[in-house]
Structure to design on (1728 residues):
């Protein structure tokens, strides 16, 4: 319809995607300004699904403080910035989280020579924390619940957090465990830092869209689901052409638009999911390419494995 | 004894004494040292203190500078080289990061193959500014334009500009040099269209856009010509209306149609590719160019005897001056969309430019108001008595004098604004100071590098701002000498 | 007559019957302060009128009303057939017919002497620059400083500046000239130069109203002297009678002070 | 035509402008209302009374995560004021020193100060904030460097102060005879001892004034001015000493316990860095103002004073300064204004000022950007209006009488 | 003698044998520029000395050396028995005995006239305020402006300001007064007022050294005129002989210029 986000995006010929200003593995520009990362890949898949070209994305770097406003004010069409799905954000902030692309939890990183092995031993510590995040609230709750005190050092960006932590200006750095891993991986001497076992919160990270345009929400949600489902069914960017021709699996056929025209229900064509998967591969491929164990970030799949593998990823059926 | 002249001994000198050299301790280096460094106990202590400070600074930083590494691909490599060359404990600077990433600091994420375009844009800026800034002195113009021409063309060649554009730039620069020798005001038309050209060079896209933007005021001017006999006020209103309507209603479509008919475009570069000093300069130059006229209007409004106009100006100026710039930038990035019709979305750089302009204009207005207030009332009366109307009196009599008085203030406002362009980092733009350095540090190779980028960026800011302030001092002195 | 040495040629100094300025029953207040009270004054073409009076008597205010630098609140002022009302057209018309020379010259310091003189002709009268410059040079010659045309006012002496101011007014080819104490800010040596220029103007038949304390000038040139006090015209007469035979007590007092000084 | 009538012209013009401005305002408000409706949001400050949920490192008044956003904002405002006031004081002191030193006859020192001024004026404040902060974090030792036998760093000032890369640990003032606190409600308390000290200091200040006027009186009568500095010192200090003795006030040095120094006051580096950077940057501007002010007093003034036999220091205090101050104070106060506004760059070092609380975390957690930013701007505006009102009063008071 | 109208009472103008100022072989350089060359000058109590000479000849420098506003580099200056060295005590002593009046008055604009006059007595001489004010009023009466005591200098005319400056110096009850072109920044009408004040001082027997171009004053009041050129004393004589019968060529040239003017 006129004025819908989909129409606007098509009219513009470009998807505006809000991302982190720079978190290696999730979203960061390289020396020539090309964006790469786990969140970036979702944006590209969405652009491919909607516009037919994974390159037609404009990445809008947002800070922890500007991200939701950027979304609600219409500056970005979708926010893929490792944001936690919470009750109040979904309701009061008028966002719609369209799913979870990374199940995370907040953890702590400390130097191993500090002799701390549990978060419970952090009483009185100085802790670096990014402002404007849920981690800030979790941290306050966690220390109160355990009757401990701490001194927060508020930082503005991940880069600054690393600087403070490295210089010893804080005893511990807290953020989502994935972020910690990414940060630790980039250190010159990763062995000398440990990530404490406690995960003090649930941090389901996912892309969000504005409240009120359900069709656009559906498109984003099912693009994510398509990526997850593709992994479940073994559809990869390499075998997809072949599967289009030869797949016998009706679910795969529907997903790839060879039988039912599911895309039309959302105002897209039949091959939307095919393009989304081709853009950067299925969920597993994206994960492996950006943050998986082969990358410097080196995250294990863990909770983010398919339900069939003991993880939490569970795409609803395509029918 | 009451004779007045009793004590007078008449005296006449018949040979004039020659001028003698002062006593040794009163001349030369000794005297200089004595009067300038050791003229008393306090002074001697100060001198020693000063020397101590210098010694402290030099001894602390000398090693670090002396042991600097320019050739390495990562911080660790730097450290290895330093350790290998100057020993394990040596500390040294790793300017290799500048060498590796200078382009990011200078051009942001602008496409590498198009670096020549911003280069050319800012080179030609000098030509456009020549009639305005360096109008009075031929020798300065010669030096500035000469250096600009050489540097710009050299840089364009190095950056791989296409031959056509190289010729174009050379032609403009040579035209500027020629005009500078003859009559610099020949370049005024170029100065007038330069803003649009500059925008086109930087952002690219179709040339028809700027052309049709230009058509608007042209139509307005025609309307004004036609109506000015009837009523100047009506004519002005109509002219503005025509211009704005043309821009809003026709210009976009016309440009698209013209482009379809006759494509005239260069590669488009999106705003999100702007960063580093390119971003600072773009915002700074645009802000400077826009804030001066706006500031003049605000100052005149504040000086006006129309109560309503005056109050509006006062409220506006005091409001803008009363809040920090970064809250205005937050408004630009967070709130502007609330105030505009649903669905409007315009470029973040443009929004930042608008906010920076408004901010600088409020300060500018106060500076210019000071200049206006310094003008004697007789000047206004004389203009009135000669039959000049308000606008002519302002344009011909009042503003030239008021602006001249305000030059130091105007330039320090410019400098302040240029420094403030670094604050765009807080709305997610890649300023050279913080965001760009964070982006560089986000890479594994350069994690942990702080001082070198600060020094590099700081030095460039210093050069530009210091240059501006010296230029304003020169201008002030020259204007003082003239007219006297 | 200390500053006036030469014989004055009165051949052109004819007063015509045409009315140049007609002021009827004019009143003006500054706030509640009544500066000008019931002023009636008719000036014919070619008249040379000197206005004298103690400080604060409203002399400046009166002549500033004539080209509407001040607004009057009651009565009528008709200049060259145009009544001064709040209509801007009329004001513009009157101002371009009436030249004014101020006590403090009020030259434009950022423009050269020539530019000072051509500014108004070019922008108000829309005269081509070449022609305006030619006219300006003619008048600069008339005030005897053509060689200073390229200088800035700040480079001239007070007397020269005031003559530039006169030339600047003349360039608009006004029918009437107003002078507000044109010599009182000048050093004694320079007063003569300026008075000479003004005398020459008078000799050519210019209609002039002049506020001045140069009684020598008044006696030599004026055809009418007006004495003002407390915002009113107290006495007016031809100069000979005015100086030798003042009627009102106030005038006598004033003259004794000013001439005794 | 109305526009051709002098009387109505400006009226017409004003009416047109007024209509245009009103139309623009209406347009903006209308857009805002529609946009809010589209987003399903309202314009409502109720969020200020909700639980904030986040902690603030520096809390001048008691605050916990359970307090409301309003209280968090007040804490932020107080933090803004703290850094602004400290910055103004320090910048003035440094600026005056540098400004006077630039005029010194000592070539070397004057040049050095010129370099200082030019360097700090011509680079962005943000750069200085980042550099100073980086110097603190990179160069100072972490607290655990003070630990144990093999400590690599030591405390300074008789083991009372520790400079670390997190904070400056200062000793606390402890009392053996604590008189308790005055509760002002809203959990704002003042220790009676503090109040006693304030009272004594203010009283001492008045006593000093009285001594000065007594000295003036004596001088007026006899011609020679009694030496009063020791009396002034005494009335300022002796009562305080008595109070210290009465309350048993003593310093308790911070001790390293666990991760950090405790038992003292830890002044965070974000505050110190922000304060220092603001001070250095503003001092460069103030130095220029001071220099210009002193230069504005012509040389003839000091020569006349010398010729009358006044000594240089009396000349300074009786002739030069009173004149220079008139020139200096107005631009000085606008520098104070700038400094206060610039303190909002606290964001760069994570100092939780008004912008960091109300305009930062609160805005972000509640998503009330319109309300939060409007409130924040109004607060800053009120601050600057108060400062500039003070300046206007001052200007009117000291204007030189002219003919 | 244009400014001096009254008869001058010479009864008190006695020159004693006591030496007030003794300058021997004094030399001064600005950098390498030799401003004062071998100056020898003895001034006795009660002398009135006028120093004349072309611009830049070092007149100001000479008298500024006498109260050490400038430092001399060779030779001796003894004022009232105290030699000027870099000893601060001596400088203070000399300065409180020597009053100085500047060309540009240099009044303190932030103090009232009375405060200007009492400042130094109170802070330097430690006189009680009451008494200082009484003295000040006496001297203000002497310079004929007691009614301006409460005003600020900015509210006075130039002549009044200069008289305040003289009164300010007198309030320190100096033994010697130095004047550096006290009338050259004044309008002609005001010169008279100031010269009158200076003549009165002379009549009371004050030792005065005065740099001035008022030759009428020199002839009427001075007992000695000193002519300087290029930093040297070229000629000195009593005024009658100096003006009527100058010896040196330079003096003749200078006098012809200054009197012909
Ligand atoms: N703008 C004004 N507002 C209020 N009163 C004014 C204004 N201008 C002049 N006056 C008063 O009006 C009176 C007449 O002033 P005007 O300047 O016309 O006197 P004048 O005769 O020209 O005196 P002078 O010889 O001193 O120039 C004076 O008392 C003056 O104080
Ligand atoms: N501070 C200074 N530094 C260097 N040269 C100076 C300084 N002051 C004065 N001079 C030079 O010393 C010379 C004598 O100056 P001085 O002011 O004593 O002359 P003067 O006889 O008083 O002249 P005038 O009549 O113009 O006042 C002049 O050539 C002047 O340029
Ligand atoms: Mg007047
Ligand atoms: Mg002199």
């Amino acid at each position: 319809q006129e004025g819908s986000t989909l129409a606007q995006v098509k009219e513009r010929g470009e998807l505006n995607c809000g991302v982190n200003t720079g978190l290696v593995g999730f979203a960061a520009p390289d020396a020539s300004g090309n964006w790469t990362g786990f969140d970036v890949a979702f944006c590209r898949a969405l652009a491919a699904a909607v516009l037919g070209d994974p390159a037609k994305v404009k990445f809008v770097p947002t800070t922890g403080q500007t991200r939701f406003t950027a979304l609600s004010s219409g500056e970005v069409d979708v926010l893929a910035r490792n944001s936690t799905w919470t009750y109040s954000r979904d309701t009061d902030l008028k966002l719609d989280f369209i799913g979870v692309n990374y199940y995370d939890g907040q953890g702590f990183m400390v130097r191993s020579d500090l002799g701390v092995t549990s978060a419970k031993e952090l009483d009185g510590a100085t802790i670096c924390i990014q402002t404007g995040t849920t981690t800030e609230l979790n941290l306050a709750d966690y220390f109160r619940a355990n009757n401990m005190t701490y001194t927060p050092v508020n930082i503005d960006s991940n880069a600054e957090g690393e600087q403070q932590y490295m210089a010893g200006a804080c005893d511990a750095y807290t953020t989502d465990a994935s972020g910690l891993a990414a940060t630790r991986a980039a250190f010159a001497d990763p062995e000398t830092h440990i990530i404490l076992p406690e995960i003090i919160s649930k941090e389901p990270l996912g892309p969000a869209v504005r409240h009120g345009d359900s069709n656009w929400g559906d498109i984003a949600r099912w693009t994510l689901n398509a990526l997850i489902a593709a992994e479940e069914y073994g559809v990869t960017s390499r075998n997809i052409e072949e599967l289009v021709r030869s797949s016998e699996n009706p679910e795969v056929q529907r997903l790839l638009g060879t039988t039912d025209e599911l895309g039309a229900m959302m105002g897209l064509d039949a091959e939307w999911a095919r393009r989304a998967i081709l853009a950067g591969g299925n969920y597993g491929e994206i994960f492996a390419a950006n943050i998986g164990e082969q990358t410097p970030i080196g995250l294990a799949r863990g909770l983010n494995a398919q339900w069939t593998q003991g993880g939490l990823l569970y795409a609803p059926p395509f029918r | 004894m009451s004779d007045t002249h009793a004590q007078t001994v008449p005296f006449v000198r018949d040979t004039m004494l020659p001028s003698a050299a002062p006593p040794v301790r009163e001349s030369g280096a000794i005297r200089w040292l004595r009067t300038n460094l050791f003229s008393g106990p306090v002074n001697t202590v100060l001198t020693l203190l000063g020397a101590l400070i210098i010694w402290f600074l030099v001894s602390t930083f000398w090693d670090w500078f002396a042991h600097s590494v320019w050739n390495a691909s990562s911080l660790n490599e730097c450290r290895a080289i330093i350790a290998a060359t100057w020993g394990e404990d040596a500390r040294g600077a790793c300017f290799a990061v500048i060498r590796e990433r200078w382009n990011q600091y200078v051009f942001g994420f602008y496409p590498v193959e198009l670096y020549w375009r911003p280069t050319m844009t800012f080179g030609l800026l000098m030509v456009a500014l020549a009639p305005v800034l360096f109008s009075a002195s031929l020798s300065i113009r010669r030096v500035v334009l000469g250096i600009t021409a050489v540097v710009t063309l050299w840089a364009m060649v190095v950056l791989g500009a296409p031959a056509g554009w190289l010729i174009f730039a050379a032609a403009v620069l040579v035209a500027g040099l020629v005009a500078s020798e003859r009559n610099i005001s020949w370049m005024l038309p170029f100065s007038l269209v330069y803003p649009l050209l500059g925008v086109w060079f930087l952002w690219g896209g179709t040339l028809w856009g700027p052309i049709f933007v230009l058509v608007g005021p042209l139509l307005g001017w025609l309307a004004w010509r036609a109506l000015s006999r009837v009523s100047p006020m009506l004519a002005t209103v109509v002219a503005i209306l025509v211009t704005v309507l043309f821009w809003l209603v026709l210009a976009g479509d016309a440009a698209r149609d013209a482009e379809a008919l006759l494509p005239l475009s260069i590669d488009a570069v999106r705003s999100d590719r702007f960063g580093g000093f390119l971003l600072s300069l773009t915002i700074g130059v645009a802000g400077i160019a826009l804030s001066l006229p706006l500031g003049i209007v605000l100052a005149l409004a504040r000086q006006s005897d129309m109560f309503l106009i005056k109050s509006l100006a006062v409220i506006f100026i005091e409001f803008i001056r009363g809040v920090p710039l970064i809250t205005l930038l937050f408004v630009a990035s967070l709130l502007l969309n609330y105030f505009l019709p649903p669905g409007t979305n315009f470029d973040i750089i443009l929004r930042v430019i608008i906010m920076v302009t408004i901010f600088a204009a409020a300060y500018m207005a106060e500076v210019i108001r000071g200049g206006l207030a310094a003008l004697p009332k007789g000047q206004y009366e004389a203009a009135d008595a000669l039959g000049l109307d308000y606008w002519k009196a302002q344009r011909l009599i009042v503003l030239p004098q008021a602006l001249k008085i305000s030059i130091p203030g105007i330039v320090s406002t410019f400098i302040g604004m240029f420094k403030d362009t670094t604050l765009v980092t807080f709305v997610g733009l890649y300023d050279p100071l913080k965001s760009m350095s964070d982006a560089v540090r986000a890479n594994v190779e350069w994690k942990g590098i702080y001082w070198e980028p600060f020094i590099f960026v700081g030095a460039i800011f210093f050069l530009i701002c210091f240059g501006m302030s010296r230029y304003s001092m020169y201008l002030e002195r020259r204007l003082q000498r003239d007219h006297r | 007559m200390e500053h006036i040495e030469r014989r004055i040629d009165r051949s052109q100094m004819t007063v015509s019957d045409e009315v140049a300025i007609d002021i009827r029953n004019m009143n003006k207040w500054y706030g509640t302060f009544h500066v000008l009270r019931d002023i009636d004054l008719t000036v014919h073409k070619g008249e040379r009128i000197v206005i004298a009076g103690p400080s604060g008597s409203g002399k400046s205010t009166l002549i500033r009303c004539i080209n509407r630098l001040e607004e009057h609140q009651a009565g009528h002022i008709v200049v060259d057939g145009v009544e001064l009302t709040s209509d801007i057209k009329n004001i513009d018309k009157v101002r371009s017919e009436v030249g004014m020379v101020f006590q403090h010259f009020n030259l434009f310091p950022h423009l050269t002497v020539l530019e000072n003189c051509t500014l108004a002709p070019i922008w108000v009268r829309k005269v081509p620059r070449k022609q305006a410059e030619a006219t300006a040079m003619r008048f600069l010659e008339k005030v005897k400083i053509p060689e200073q045309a390229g200088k800035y006012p700040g480079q001239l002496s007070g007397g020269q500046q005031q003559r530039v101011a006169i030339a600047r007014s003349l360039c608009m080819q006004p029918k009437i000239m107003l002078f507000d104490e044109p010599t009182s800010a000048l050093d004694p040596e320079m007063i003569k130069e300026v008075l000479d220029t003004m005398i020459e103007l008078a000799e050519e038949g210019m209609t002039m109203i002049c506020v001045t304390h140069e009684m020598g000038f008044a006696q030599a040139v004026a055809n009418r002297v007006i004495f003002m006090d407390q915002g009113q015209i107290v006495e007016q007469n031809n100069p000979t009678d005015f100086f030798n035979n003042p009627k009102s007590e106030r005038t006598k007092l004033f003259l004794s002070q000013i001439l005794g000084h | 035509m109305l526009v051709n009538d002098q009387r109505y012209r400006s009226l017409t013009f004003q009416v047109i402008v007024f209509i245009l401005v009103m139309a623009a305002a209406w347009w903006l408000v209308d857009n805002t209302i529609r946009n809010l409706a589209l987003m399903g949001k309202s314009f409502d400050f109720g969020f200020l009374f909700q639980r904030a949920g986040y902690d603030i490192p520096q809390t001048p008044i008691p605050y916990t995560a359970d307090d409301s956003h309003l209280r968090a904002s007040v804490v932020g405002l107080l933090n803004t004021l703290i850094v602004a006031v400290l910055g103004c004081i320090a910048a003035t002191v440094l600026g005056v020193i540098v400004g006077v030193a630039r005029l010194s006859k000592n070539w070397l020192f004057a040049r050095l100060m010129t370099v200082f001024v030019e360097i700090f004026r011509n680079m962005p404040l943000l750069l200085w904030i980042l550099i100073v902060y980086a110097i603190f974090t990179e160069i100072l030792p972490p607290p655990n460097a003070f630990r144990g036998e093999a400590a690599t760093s030591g405390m300074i000032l008789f083991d009372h102060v520790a400079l670390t890369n997190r904070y400056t640990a200062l000793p606390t003032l402890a009392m053996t005879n604590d008189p308790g606190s005055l509760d002002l409600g809203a959990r704002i308390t003042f220790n009676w001892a503090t109040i006693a000290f304030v009272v004594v200091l203010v009283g001492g200040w008045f006593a000093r004034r009285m001594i000065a006027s007594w000295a003036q009186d004596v001088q007026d009568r006899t011609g020679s001015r009694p030496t009063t500095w020791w009396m002034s010192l005494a009335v300022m200090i002796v009562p305080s000493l008595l109070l210290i003795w009465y309350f048993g006030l003593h310093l308790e040095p911070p001790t390293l316990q666990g991760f950090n120094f405790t038992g003292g006051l830890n002044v965070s580096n974000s505050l110190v860095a922000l304060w220092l950077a603001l001070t250095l940057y503003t001092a460069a501007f103030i130095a220029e103002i001071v220099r210009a002010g002193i230069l504005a007093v012509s040389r003839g003034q000091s020569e006349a004073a010398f010729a009358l036999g006044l000594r240089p220091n009396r000349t300074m205090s009786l002739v030069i300064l009173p004149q220079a101050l008139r020139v200096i104070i107005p631009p000085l106060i606008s520098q104070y204004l700038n400094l206060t506004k610039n303190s909002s760059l606290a964001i760069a070092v994570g100092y939780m000022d008004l912008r960091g609380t109300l305009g930062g975390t609160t805005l972000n957690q509640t998503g009330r950007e319109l309300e939060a930013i409007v409130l924040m701007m109004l607060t800053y505006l009120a601050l600057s209006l108060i400062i500039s009102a003070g300046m206007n009063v001052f200007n009117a008071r000291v204007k030189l009488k002219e003919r």
